[in-house]
Amino acid sequence: xxxxxxxxxxxxxxxxxxxxxxxxxxxxxxxxxxxxxxxxxxxxxxxxxxxxxxxxxxxxxxxxxxxxxxxxxxxxxxxxxxxxxxxxxxxxxxxxxxxxxxxxxxxxxxxxxxxxxxxxxxxxxxxxxxxxxxxxxxxxxxxxxxxxxxxxxxxxxxxxxxxxxxxxxxxxxxxxxxxxxxxxxxxxxxxxxxxxxxxxxxxxxxxxxxxxxxxxxxxxxxxxxxxxxxxxxxxxxxxxxxxxxxxxxxxxxxxxxxxxxxxxxxxxxxxxxxxxxxxxxxxxxxxxxxxxxxxxxxxxxxxxxxxxxxxxxxxxxxxxxxxxxxxxxxxxxxxxxxxxxxxxxxxxxxxxxxxxxxxxxxxxxxxxxxxxxxxxxxxxxxxxxxxxxxxxxxxxxxxxxxxxxxxxxxxxxxxxxxxxxxxxxxx
Amino acid sequence: xxxxxxxxxxxxxxxxxxxxxxxxxxxxxxxxxxxxxxxxxxxxxxxxxxxxxxxxxxxxxxxxxxxxxxxxxxxxxxxxxxxxxxxxxxxxxxxxxxxxxxxxxxxxxxxxxxxxxxxxxxxxxxxxxxxxxxxxxxxxxxxxxxxxxxxxxxxxxxxxxxxxxxxxxxxxxxxxxxxxxxxxxxxxxxxxxxxxxxxxxxxxxxxxxxxxxxxxxxxxxxxxxxxxxxxxxxxxxxxxxxxxxxxxxxxxxxxxxxxxxxxxxxxxxxxxxxxxxxxxxxxx
Amino acid sequence: xxxxxxxxxxxxxxxxxxxxxxxxxxxxxxxxxxxxxxxxxxxxxxxxxxxxxxxxxxxxxxxxxxxxxxxxxxxxxxxxxxxxxxxxxxxxxxxxxxxxxxxxxxxxxxxxxxxxxxxxxxxxxxxxxxxxxxxxxxxxxxxxxxxxxxxxxxxxxxxxxxxxxxxxxxxxxxxxxxxxxxxxxxxxxxxxxxxxxxxxxxxxxxxxxxxxxxxxxxxxxxxxxxxxxxxxxxxxxxxxxxxxxxxxxxxxxxxxxxxxxxxxxxxxxxxxxxxxx
Lengths: 427, 284, 277
Prior knowledge:
The complex is a heterotrimer. By secondary structure, chain A is an alpha/beta fold. Helices cover 41% and strands 12% of the residues of chain A. Chain A has 16 helices and 11 strands. In chain A, the strands form 3 sheets. In chain A, strands 1, 2, 3, 6, 10 and 11 form a 6-stranded mixed beta sheet that branches. In chain A, strands 8-7-9 form a 3-stranded antiparallel beta sheet. In chain A, strands 4-5 form a two-stranded antiparallel sheet. Mean pLDDT of chain A is 87; it is low at 1-17 and 37-45. By secondary structure, chain B is mainly alpha-helical. The two termini of chain B are 26 Å apart. Chain C contains 13 helices and 2 strands. By secondary structure, chain C is mostly helical. Chain C has helices spanning 18-39, 57-62, 68-100, 105-115, 118-131, 138-158, 163-174, 179-191, 194-208, 211-216, 224-233, 237-260, 264-276, and strands at residues 41-42, 53-54. In chain C, helix 6 packs antiparallel against helix 9.
């Protein structure tokens, strides 16, 4: 043991006189230098070469692996991706699809760390993203592209639909490919809620009259719900469109936080805790702890009842104030090691066959991004023959109450504001 | 008496953790001062000022410290009770098997089990439902992600207690404590009195450092707080891990401010511990 | 094996192990029973006590070579094997070198991994490992785990270098013995018994690690802990129970040799305690 008095030398650096200390010191300096020196400098351009023929991309991708980063909070989506999609990619292209479970903000953090470390060959080839992630990834130039023009199946996409061609008010510009389109629905238990609230006032009254029976999650779905409420407090919703109007944001966000604070004592667990994600919220509805859940996938209710995740009495609806309709996309990170194969996977996922399978309520129930008029009669018939929804309004009905996604900055601020104003502030 | 080759090899190998730890600290420090990162602003102390103004870090530290302290104390009491049971009621191999089984349960599984038992839709609630105690999960008390960290504390105790109890058994055996307590019993003390008055002071003396380590482990715990801890304030490891992926990119340096503070505190705690130990040795 | 001698009072009958059995049964019921119950089927809707569709389908799926959990198991085993061997060997060499160092900092450094959170360390280490081309690679995860495992082992070995071993080393050297002779006649006999324990300890550290593998592995290195967290995120409690039992199996199996080695695990902590105080 050392004597306690010689404690003033700098941490790590040992006295130069000691030979052992010298060895350690030199080793540390060498390793510090070597780790710095390992930076790769041949950064590939972010652009994807349009000159490569599709057939070449197919042949170059055979026998390779594609690592897809995706939200993995839904067992049925995971199962479809891991079984059906994986096996068809293996069969058609000889590509092995692997998965990493990452949420949007974790993905941004991971790619940002890669760029900061000048990491030209990253871990991820493909990312499943939505508006606020796209906005942030574009901001730090973490996405490769444009590439959608190069995908043979992209010509079938309904680019005329503003809900598809714009992601959180930001033009896609070929840097992400639409994969599915959905609208938020509120889910309620028909056996306990005879008439679901249609207006904000009715919702407020219902929450007060049924303390502890309503909540929302503090992840993507819950924050999307808050966004639709925020728009209700605005007299000029266009203030949240392309550029954010700061004074309108201040006014409406304050109204939103006040609304939540006012109702907080009547929420589940008196608003002290909120479910981490929508999977937990479904679980609460299923176990009878609350009477409402919500979903960003308008076709989910049938699917989840079939799986036993939601009770048989669960029903989906859209209140009169409307809900956000949006599209989710697939992008290629700027440091993706296998861009060609990633493009093949995207092209496969937007093929009529994959879109049809995904749209089936027993598999996922996700809306297609394809323009059915551009498909052959045979495919059109197949899409129209998809089993109808049993417990959710039709897509046409839903669309009447569709709200356009506000600016991506709104989602980021809502996430932050919810933590600061609600979670971190005592009642 | 260690050869030069051994010194060089050992020194080189020691340099691996030394470099990794030193660089991770420096990276965080530079990032928090605006000197690193894609959106770096250049030298600034605004992130540090913002962190200490908001109080989130201090709240998190306080929560982590209080939770760790309660877990350590409850584990100590539990371990003493088990040792007492061992002595007074003759629990033998089965007790050791039970402790080893509990010790073999990783923290993540312990957190999962805490949820499984204590959440409103969990096993206890279901048993109560079938016995007529409750009619719906909403009637079950909130013990998971609760504001008093009850589930988290229980999870921490189940992780720490077996370790401490096994350590006590080992100390008991190594120091032949049974001789002292048996003598006390023969002289008229009750078995619990003998454990309390004779064995406990001896165990306490030998386990103080281990108790500090258990406190530090629980202070830094992650899996348990992640699955059963409260949402705000968050335990320190959860706060740091969450904040690296916060939504605003401009706030990213804040997470490195948290981690830098955490590393400084950890190193300071260790320095104080080792220094105190050396003084103690010197006095001896 | 009993580590505590029974309370022997003349004229008093030996007490049966009833309380121990009660405690053991309680622990089994609290830990193993719910996991076995949930892993024995799929679905678990309120207020059922047993899975909705009982059967061994999840186990047969988990043990099929195509299953991701099976692949994760192999990755975890590989990582644990490599980390335990490199960690133990490095720990032994580091402990020899630090015994010769006169500065307290290396010793403090050895204790740092005992108290620092692996997940926080992983987040902070990512940058340098990414620069070195090691992020998202098994080698990067091994290196990060080694930064923890080597000091953990070194602390255990450190307690072996007593005055007696120093005197023995001096004797061998005085008699003209080389470093090899020192290792053969002094170091090896001293460390022989502790090496298996160190191997087990470092293997367990690696097997149970989630913080480092999830941050440094970047989703590409998928271990049992990574799968378990993913299953918990998607709410698949039945599959999570299977993964949890798989995760617990090696520690449970290792508990037997540890018991045979007369509870050396707490003894390591005693080693850390001695190192600090």
